[in-house]
């Protein structure tokens, strides 16, 4: 698999100022570049992302957008040119092409902003296309919080730039399965999911940990990946909660000074 040849950050000259002095120095800026996704040789979507993990990113995107249901739906997924990692082309096997003819024809992303869509209609549509989560296993709440001890130290890009989002997937036994960072929250999730999806072990993921707030489209992506539990640093939006309730997911965020706020699905938490 071709690796991204762009460094995920660059340095820029800045002036550090405070009331007593000013100092010229160089600081790191996270890189943001367009990634063009083509499906069946037709432009489908352009996302702004941090270079790296392009193939897993697009694989995860295709799963969470409903373009594919399993990795076997891909005929191929490759860079369009050997020297350009900003364009990825996806080819689908013929049976899958017929199943998703309408989404391909609209040539757009279902993760677009919600401003032009009625919230009630969106929840209804999402819940018709994504079955409720049926994994009812219980996990220890304290152990779930302990996943953050593995989460924070693995945010290397965030440490360097202080500008990235991160998403991590843990197993039911709290093993770290996958982690990704990106300038975009959605991209980080797609990358983390895509790594497992391409390895055919996404079914091991039970807990999704996020560095950001939880919006409805992130719940949608977790639902498509069949991940029953979302734990985030920040709170969910109201629409995210509506979707999570309909999908019978567990959703929680950190509570200060310690503990969790559990917004729904508390039946999956034990001691």
What descriptive keywords fit this protein?
271 residues; single chain; globular; 31% helix; alpha/beta; Cytidine Deaminase, domain 2; 6-stranded mixed sheet
Short description:
This protein has 271 residues and is of the alpha/beta class. The protein has helices at 54-64, 94-99, 101-106, 119-129, 141-151, 156-161, 185-198, 216-224, 238-246; strands at residues 9-17, 22-30, 33-39, 42-49, 74-81, 84-92, 139-140, 165-171, 176-182, 205-210, 229-232, 250-254, 260-264, 269-270.
Characterise this structure.
This protein is α/β, with parallel strands linked by helices and 271 residues long. The protein has a domain at 139-270: Cytidine Deaminase, domain 2. Helix content is 31%, strand content 32%. It has helices at 54-64, 94-99, 101-106, 119-129, 141-151, 156-161, 185-198, 216-224, 238-246, and strands at 9-17, 22-30, 33-39, 42-49, 74-81, 84-92, 139-140, 165-171, 176-182, 205-210, 229-232, 250-254, 260-264, 269-270. A 6-stranded mixed beta sheet has the order 9-8-10-11-12-13, sandwiched between helices. Strand 10 (205-210), helix 8 (216-224) and strand 11 (229-232) form a beta-alpha-beta unit. The radius of gyration is 19 Å and the shape is globular. Mean pLDDT is 88; it is low at 108-116.
């Amino acid at each position: 698999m071709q690796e991204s040849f762009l460094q995920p950050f660059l340095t820029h000259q800045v002036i550090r100022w405070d009331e007593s002095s000013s100092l010229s120095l160089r600081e790191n800026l996270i890189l943001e570049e367009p990634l063009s996704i083509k499906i069946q040789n037709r432009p489908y979507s352009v996302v702004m992302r941090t270079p790296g993990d392009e193939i897993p990113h697009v694989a995860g995107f295709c799963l969470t957008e409903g373009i594919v249901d399993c990795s076997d739906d891909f005929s191929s997924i490759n860079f369009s040119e050997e020297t350009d990692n900003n364009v990825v082309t996806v080819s689908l096997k013929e049976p899958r092409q017929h199943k998703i003819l309408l989404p391909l024809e609209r040539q757009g992303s279902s993760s677009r902003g919600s401003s032009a869509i009625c919230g009630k209609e969106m929840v209804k549509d999402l819940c018709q296309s994504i079955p409720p989560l049926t994994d009812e296993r219980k996990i220890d709440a304290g152990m779930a919080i302990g996943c953050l001890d593995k989460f924070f130290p693995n945010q290397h890009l965030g440490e360097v730039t202080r500008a990235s989002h991160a998403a991590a997937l843990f197993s039911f036994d709290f093993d770290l399965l996958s982690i990704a960072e990106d300038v975009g929250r959605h991209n980080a999730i797609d990358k983390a999911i895509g790594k497992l999806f391409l390895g055919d072990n996404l079914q091991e993921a039970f807990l999704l940990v996020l560095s950001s707030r939880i919006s409805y489209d992130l719940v949608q992506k977790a639902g498509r990946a069949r991940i029953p539990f979302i734990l985030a640093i920040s709170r969910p939006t109201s629409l995210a909660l509506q979707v999570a309730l309909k999908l019978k997911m567990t959703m929680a965020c950190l509570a200060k000074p310690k503990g969790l706020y559990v917004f729904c699905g508390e039946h999956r938490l034990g001691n």
